[in-house]
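note to self: dont lose this again. the chain is below, predicted strucutre after it. 437 aa total, dont forget to put it in the shared folder this time
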Amino acid sequence: MSLTLLKENLATELEDARRRTLALLAPLPDAALTRQHSPLMSPLAWDLAHVGNYEDLWLVRGAGADAVGASYDHLYDAFRNSRAERIKLPLLDPAGARSYLVTVRGRALECLERVELGSGRPLFEHGYVYKMVLQHEHQHDETMLATLQLMDAPGYQAALGSSVAPPARSSTARRGSEVLVDGGPFVMGTSSDTWAYDNERPAHVVELAPFWIDRLPATNRDWLEFVGDGGYHDRRWWSAGGWSWRCHAEFEHPGAWQYHGTGSWSIDRFGHHRELPLDEPVQHVCWYEADAYARWRGRRLPTEAEWEKAASWHAPSETKRRYPWGNVAPTSELANLGQLRFGPAPVGSHPSGASAWGCEQMVGDVWEWTASDFLPYPGFRAFPYREYSEVFWGSEYKVLRGGSWATHPAAVRTTFRNWDFPIRRQIFAGLRCARDA
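---
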């Protein structure tokens, strides 16, 4: 691709991302944007201005131009201010945040016109910094969707015009179906994907024993069996930390579920209550819950290396795929991404998106918890700043893979690593189980 065409594509993607961000918040009054709906999440107006401040830092100042809003840096620094504390800051109001976004974007596009993308500077080579900023905005869109799920916003989906019928579902996809992944080496991570973050690098060979992994993610129907069997009250299935969390939190079912007696369950989706969709992948479960469920099933969570091999490795040719189905960009036929349904698709909805091993829906629908701590790969080097990955290394965080229905297609691939505390359940996370062969 020529550098001129690359610049045109980056400018288009930046504008598309901004339209998506603004559209997400358009149905909401200012009061909903400035209120803190949960101590786990920022006020939505903070996320909005933070997106602009990040772009100001990397696409304006990073390109050598004067800052648009350096005086805002202390307000929108995610490391300086915890989510619970951000409501106390003198934040820009929604109109001020939108105005800041417009000004920053204009300056960033001016810089893009004159910046040299083939200059040999790693930050700008192949447009890396623009791809980083694009993914950052898409990731904050997903964070804002998690906030919107937690708040009482009936009618939000209708106001956004987001009602899309689910795709056809395969009648052969059922729980208990597993695939065997052969043992042997595979290439984990990447050294060549120009969209990849530092924690996905470098590519390295990992040797794995053979293992079984579920063809499909666990569903609400599966989880209902766990609940009905007293899974939340049986100490046998829980790790020590998980049991302590469960007893303290007193949760007895996934987030957004509601019990109405006589075996009747519903789910709250953006303020709209509907009958629990039994064939959809379960979501809003934390790592502790996922680990307990897997034990109850006589299984375990896959390691992230196992997950990545099952998702990306084509053994006959010994090649790695960017997506489970290959290297073709995601479409609605291949995966449920980009908030089209505002929820997971029923299992079996995307057979054409299966991996080479036959695993379905490994990208999209729900993030999938793995057994792994968030740790660096051999040869890791922080780039372009330590605070993206390096400061989070350790056993405090567990790795999630695959993306959710809320994840933008540009912000997911089989090498992408997400991570969070094992207690977090507001994110759109579920699981699939594995076991030794």
